[in-house]
């Protein structure tokens, strides 16, 4: 009786081990933000966005220069200009500063919108690559560690598949058109237009 039970137990253990061996058990990590930006498509998209933003950035920089020039004029004439002139300069600086801030916010909103369009396209393609890679290589899970909020305290470099995904994406990007499963939207990855410095003008003495 004990012999039969031992045989049955041994067979059950063997079956369980075989089942576990067939199921994917590997876990991988990927920095998806860096992966998207490092692909050829990502680099092209970044260059296009930067080129599109360049004229507006130049315009904002010029407005900032105008404000700085007015500030210099106000500071240098603090002891020679009349109080009325200083008050007018101060008012002009405030108005231009407010206008610059609004222009920057509008430009930033436009850039964010352009980024989201690009991310939807590239994100769907790279997620399809990740899923294909995971299936082909027996990964049970792939975790995105791009965000500081990702609850991963440590991950060995040996399970980082970022480079593999970048290479596979670039290799197959021309033939990829299948969208990623619903509900999987990648996080933003591209750098935004640098925020212009909008210093507050120095106060003037009131008459």
Tell me the layout of helices and strands:
Elements: H1 2-22, E1 26-30, H2 32-38, H3 40-76, H4 83-136, E2 139-144, H5 162-172
Parallel strand pairs: 1-2
Helix pairs in contact: 2-3, 2-5, 3-4, 4-5
Please, could you describe this protein's structure?
With 207 residues, the chain is mainly alpha-helical. The protein has one domain: Skp domain (Protein Binding, DinI Protein, Chain A). The chain contains five helices and two strands; from the N terminus they run αβαααβα. It has helices at 2-22, 32-38, 40-76, 83-136, 162-172, and strands at residues 26-30, 139-144. The protein has a two-stranded parallel ribbon with strand order 1-2. α2 crosses α3 and α2 (32-38) packs parallel to α5. The protein starts with a helix and ends in a 35-residue tail after the last helix. The model is unreliable at 4-19 and 178-207 (pLDDT under 50).
In short:
The chain has 207 residues and is mostly helical. The protein has five helices and two strands. The C terminus is likely disordered.
């Amino acid at each position: 009786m004990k012999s039969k039970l031992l045989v049955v137990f041994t067979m059950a253990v063997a079956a369980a081990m075989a089942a576990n061996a067939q199921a994917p058990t590997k876990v991988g990590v990927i920095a998806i933000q860096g992966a998207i930006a490092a692909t050829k498509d990502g680099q092209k998209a970044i260059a296009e966005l930067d080129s599109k933003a360049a004229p507006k950035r130049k315009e904002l920089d010029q407005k900032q220069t105008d404000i700085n020039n007015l500030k210099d004029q106000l500071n240098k004439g603090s002891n020679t200009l009349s109080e009325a002139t200083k008050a007018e300069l101060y008012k002009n600086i405030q108005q231009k500063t407010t206008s610059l801030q609004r222009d920057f916010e509008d430009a930033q909103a436009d850039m964010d919108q352009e980024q989201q369009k690009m991310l939807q396209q590239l994100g769907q393609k790279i997620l399809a690559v990740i899923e294909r890679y995971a299936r082909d290589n027996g990964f049970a899970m792939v975790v995105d560690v791009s965000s500081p909020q990702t609850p991963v305290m440590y991950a060995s470099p040996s399970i980082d598949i970022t480079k593999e995904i970048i290479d596979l994406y670039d290799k197959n990007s021309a033939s990829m058109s299948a969208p990623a499963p619903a509900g999987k939207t990648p996080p933003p990855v591209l750098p935004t237009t640098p925020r212009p410095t909008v210093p507050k003008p120095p106060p003037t003495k009131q008459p």
